[in-house]
Amino acid sequence: MGPDEERSEGSQRSELADAALYATLTSLLVASLLAPLIAASLNSLVEQKNRMKGVKRVILDMATTLGVTNSTMRIIERRDVVDKYIVFAGIFVTCLVIWILYRWI
């Protein structure tokens, strides 16, 4: 191997190291820019969850004040679970239809 070949091989290694460093720095920059947005979204979801818990508690208190029986409350909660399954089934069917249309067209 001559000096030119060694220099060429060394410069190739250096270029690969520079590319890897650039990729790492780019991914760190993107992660640091997205981290506050992700944290804000998660905090917003936590606040919404806590607010909904409070709303549920108030509604249950109002229902007991109005004299709604426990059996009626169980029916309402069961309906809530069934509605959740219906929503998930609808999401699945919609995604399936979109996928079929995408593959077909």
Structure overview:
- With about 100 residues, the chain is an all-alpha fold.
- It folds into 2 domains: about 1-65; about 70-105.
- It contains 2 helices and no strands.
- The protein has helices at about 5-65, 70-105.
- The protein is elongated and about 85 Å long.
- The two termini are about 55 Å apart.
- The model has no long low-confidence stretch (mean pLDDT about 80).
Rg for CA atoms: 29 Å
Q: How many domains, as an integer?
A: 2
| SSE order, one letter for each helix or strand | HH
Low-confidence stretches: none
Number of helices: 2
| Intertermini distance | 56 Å
- Number of separate strands: 0
> Beta-strand percentage?
under 5%
From the structure provided, what is the oligomeric state, counting identical versus distinct chains? single chain
Key features?
mainly alpha; 105 residues; 2 helices; 94% helix
Task: Summarize the topology.
Blueprint: H1 3-66, H2 70-104
Short description:
With 105 residues, the chain is an all-alpha fold. The protein has helices at residues 3-66, 70-104.
